[in-house]
């Protein structure tokens, strides 16, 4: 187990110290793991306090939501363990006045018992307290009674409404009623791709197969209600929302808010995809989403996965959701963008693709199209091989980049091959847009320079092609600064271009000269195995890259060899 902690028993306190250090307007009680709003007015003038908490390991919940217009205090227990009733009572005493306190509790036995006992003691001391229990887990709708379901990330929406209502000066009864109404309306469900690891345990709570996921789980690393094979993001969102809608709290025609929650190890890219899918699925179901948020709101340590929470809203809810807060981890208004796609104006001087009936495709253009097709299909077939090679010294994305570029090449319309120059120019344009990272600019630059070199030649000879090939390699070197021996794609390109030109000059046929150029590229690629990288991402790991060929040079060898099968003798 690898964890960025000091000692497991100190993790909670030290984490809270870090949170408070980064959160002006909060404070940490000296003798308890309780984060409170700082600068509260005198007790007699305080509004209703809104207090929540529970086991730690759900960060940013709950300490991240302490701040004006949200939580007054958050009580942190040990990892996945309810805080004691004494700690909860300390929080009530620290932030409450005669207006009283609302305790927002997730529906777990330990939390209910300890928050409930603390409330009883506080009431005996003269502090009015109301308890609101959140039991929003829709996955358990066919398993347990509604009041026995688990509390999930929908709790954060309850925090927001209750905190805003308290900040507006509502009385205890009204704040509790608003929070209770929200808790009754919100419905949530989670899916995980794996388990989490508790710092004190050091091993997973359960093990999933390579393609297995847990559906309908809680927030403590426990298994879900069923295990199934992984599916696409859209399919998993549809499954989740189908269950939530079947729970009956949200109906066609409702306006609702959506919370897309990461369980701890889900990257923002994936959360954004889930949000997109969630908005679309709800729209199709006749539910209008008026506010939505995506991020990690209530995690399960380092669990990979997500939960969705949906709550129908009324006109009274929206002002509360829109009220600004000072809590560190509340993300903002949740307003949606109704203009998803922006279409840029096209300058009048940009070339417009010619109509098919106005274009005559030359024999040389068709030959180039065939060469491109062979090369592209070879790169698509080599995606895994290139990804593996690139992963040794980089981020492993070259295989996917080459596939995207190859697919773009195959998608070039036939009308673009009215000449070799125009075909090369179209390929440069497609590759530039399809391939991210460094490969796209390199290949686009080479193709553009080759296109310019052949611009006024209707039927290029083999020597013309050789000169254009050399010009393309020079463009790549000029752009990136790479030379032979730097362990880059140039180590395959440069010997290939030189060999093709030299063998033609020696009298070989274009086909034989090309085959020797392919052999030279392959030998150049093999030489990179023992080279220390001098440029690019591989240079960051130095000698650790030695022992495997450069992935960019390997890609060059693959498409050169494939294109050789389409090369025909030319004058």
Description:
- This protein is α/β, with parallel strands linked by helices and 571 residues long.
- The protein folds into two domains: 8-193 and 230-322, Dihydroxyacetone kinase, domain 1 (Rossmann fold, 3-Layer(aba) Sandwich), CATH 3.40.50.10440; 360-564, DhaL domain (Serine Threonine Protein Phosphatase 5, Tetratricopeptide repeat).
- It contains 17 helices and twelve strands.
- It has helices at residues 11-21, 85-95, 109-124, 154-167, 172-185, 233-246, 268-284, 317-322, 363-381, 383-393, 398-410, 420-434, 439-453, 462-480, 490-505, 510-527, 551-564; strands spanning 26-28, 34-37, 49-56, 73-79, 101-106, 129-134, 187-192, 212-215, 226-229, 255-262, 288-295, 305-312.
- The strands form two sheets. It has a six-stranded mixed beta sheet with strand order 1-2-4-3-5-6, with helices on both faces. A six-stranded mixed beta sheet has the order 9-8-7-12-10-11, with helices on both faces.
- Strand 10 (255-262), helix 7 and strand 11 form a beta-alpha-beta unit.
- Helix 13 (439-453) packs antiparallel against helix 14 and helix 14 (462-480) packs antiparallel against helix 15 (490-505).
- The longest helix is centred in the middle third of the chain and has 19 residues, at 363-381.
- It is elongated, with a radius of gyration of 31 Å.
- Residues 352-357 have low confidence and may be disordered.
- GO terms for molecular function: ATP binding; glycerone kinase activity.
- Keywords: ATP-binding, Kinase, Nucleotide-binding, Transferase.
- Pfam families: Dak1, Dak2.
